[in-house]
Amino acid sequence: MNNVNLIGRLTKDPELRHTNEGRSICQFTLAIDDTFSKEDRSDFIRVTVFGNQAENCEKYLRKGFLAGVSGRMRSDIYTDSAGIKRYPISVTGERVQFLQWPSKESEAEKAADQEVA
User: Fold this and answer.
1) Domain 4-116's class?
2) Is the full-model pTM beyond 0.85?
């Protein structure tokens, strides 16, 4: 069984891209406080979501917003520039809950920014 549930704050705005076939992919990173640590520590988990969920994440989530993610954990492997093997953890999100919504002012600002672009 591979299920993970996370609640954290976005470290920056979500990044949306599309595959050549038109499939939406959105990536963002959640900062999750480690409440059991004696130090002031957080874990940073990369999250990837697909399809309509990806579109909605890009539309409604922003840096600092609180979000909940349910999905599957993945472990990758790569060798960094110093020759050290790294094993980053990421999550493929199956469900994202928006636990904080933008204010009316920030929605108006985003709409104005899109009109200018």
Assistant:
1) mainly beta
2) no
